[in-house]
Design a protein that fits this description.
508 residues, mainly alpha
Length: 508
């Protein structure tokens, strides 16, 4: 056990930092729309059930691997698995996945900062929808503007991480998350009080089973499953690292539930901010970047005191984006330290330049390299990066985490549960074992293959077959990693785990 490893200063810090990582831009521009589209409150009920059944168990797995190993994902599998197994090979995919995520997410966070400045200067005030859309198009066409704001995000976020866990990541993230939550409350109250907002609230929160029938019950359930699966950003170790900084005082089930609740509250509140406001001014709350950068500025222009609400909104969005970026950067820096044995300062400096350079393809994909359409007509390099992360590394990473925590040639279910249930609080249910071992991996694979199919179906049968073949090969690679046979004698590992527990008990 590494007694010198940094730890969170408080439980609140852990919950807010973890929630900050989970609270992403998709919670704001995607969840409210798909909720209203798929039956409002009826969809929310299905979504919450899926979140408890899918997202929560995998989140617990990540936290357990982190706390049990006391290391980042760069070394965690090797520390917990038997000798001569292949689990540790996934660390390179997770390492790459974090970089790929930041290659485009850092750029999008830069958009938020840019639009905060736009709103503060009044650049979007009193402009038509076409003019506002023109500003967004002009930003995308300007590599200089996007490069500048992307580099600002990199400098700020790496700077925070370089200060360390408690003085940097925890302290700054706590402030940002508290301010974010306060802003959300103020903006939600304002949105609800707008004349004509009642229809938006009805669209968003009132159960509408006719809409569910129109969409198809199966499609609605799958939409809920997919969003519940991806909303926490699991599968690349971005949550695992915070588990490694967590003390043994509390059981992990309760801690994970707290993070899930906070993430869900943010998603639901974002809908209360956006949907009623759009309905109040007769604007379709369509999903995607256009909602944030074109639709909502037009809504604010029609509000009394619209510029103030516009400024507050983009402050809120900037905090949501930066909290995620800082959390993932912390994971990248921690993995760099574990994999290459360097100091936090050196890892921060190296990644400052590496991430800044790696962000350029996504930036140039909207202008200089816009002719490159890597995964179909109309797609960009950012879409390719997002596809690799969201459709591949995240679901396959989640599958690997579950297999690792439940298989005898991995960490093993008993060791996993022992780690989860160490400390005070809510215990992990014993009846979950068959679900974790057999049902959850199958659901993961269904979501993975369905995502591929839906992505490439519009491009024709031939394209679908090619990409589905790739999906099968990648999933088989995960099972190849999981099938590695280790030493039959696990006495060394069990002895190491027992020694750690003895040390902890003596301290207690």
């Amino acid at each position: 056990m590494n007694d010198n490893r940094e730890k969170f200063a408080s439980r609140l810090g852990f919950i807010l930092v973890s929630a900050g990582c989970a609270v992403g831009l998709g919670n704001v521009w995607k969840f409210p729309y798909i909720c209203g589209k798929n039956g409002g409150a009826a969809f929310i009920v299905i979504y919450l059930l899926c979140l408890l059944g899918l997202g929560l168990p995998i989140l617990i797995c990540e936290y357990a691997i982190g706390r049990g190993s006391n290391k980042s994902l760069g070394s965690a599998f090797k520390a917990l698995s038997p000798e001569r197994t292949r689990w540790h090979h996934f660390r390179w995919a997770a390492y790459a996945g974090n970089y790929l995520l930041m290659m485009f997410y850092t750029m999008v966070a830069g958009w938020m900062l840019n639009y905060f400045v736009y709103s503060l200067s009044g650049k979007l005030t009193d402009k038509s929808v076409d003019e506002i859309g023109g500003e967004f198009s002009q930003m995308l066409a300007s590599p200089g503007i996007m490069t500048f704001w992307t580099f600002v995000v990199v400098l700020v976020s790496i700077g925070v991480c370089s200060l360390g866990l408690q003085k940097g990541v925890e302290k700054i993230s706590k402030v940002m998350m508290i301010l974010l939550l306060a802003l959300m409350v103020v903006m939600a109250v304002n949105s609800v009080m707008l004349e004509g907002s009642a229809e938006g609230l009805k669209f968003y929160l009132v159960p509408d089973f006719n809409k569910m029938k129109e969409q198809g019950i199966g499609n609605v359930v799958f939409a809920a499953m997919s969003h519940a699966f991806f909303t926490l950003g699991l599968g690349i170790g971005s949550m695992e690292i915070f588990g490694s900084y967590l003390s043994k005082d509390c059981k992990l089930t309760g801690e994970s539930i707290n993070v899930v609740i906070l993430d869900t509250v943010v998603a639901l509140t974002a809908g209360i901010i956006i949907i009623p406001a759009c309905f109040a001014y007769g604007i379709n709350p369509g999903a995607g970047p256009s909602l944030l950068f074109i639709t909502l500025p037009n809504v604010f222009n029609q509000m009394p005191g619209g510029q103030l609400w516009e400024v507050l909104f983009f402050v809120f969005m900037a905090f949501a984006a930066l909290s995620t970026v800082i959390a993932v950067y912390e994971n990248i820096i921690a993995m760099t330290m574990d994999l290459f044995g360097c100091s936090r300062k050196r890892a921060s400096i190296v990644n400052l330049f590496v991430i800044a350079a790696l962000s350029m393809p996504a930036i140039l994909g909207y202008n200089v390299l816009s002719g490159i359409e890597p995964i179909g007509a109309g797609t960009t390099l950012m879409d390719l990066e997002d596809f690799i992360v969201s459709y591949n590394i995240l679901p396959l990473g989640c599958l690997l985490f579950v297999l690792f925590c439940t298989r005898k040639n991995g960490w093993g279910y008993d060791n996993f549960v022992a780690e989860v249930n160490e400390g005070n609080g809510l215990a992990f249910p014993k009846w979950m074992k068959p679900y974790m071992m057999y049902i959850l991996p199958v659901i993961d694979l269904v979501i993975y293959f369905k995502g591929y199919y839906d992505m490439f179906k519009p491009q024709g049968t031939k394209v679908v077959c090619i990409w589905m073949t790739i999906a099968v090969v990648l999933s088989l690679l995960v099972f190849w990693i999981a099938a590695g046979h280790g030493s039959k004698d696990k006495s060394k590992i069990n002895s190491k785990n027992n020694k750690n527990k003895v040390v902890i008990n003596k301290k207690q």
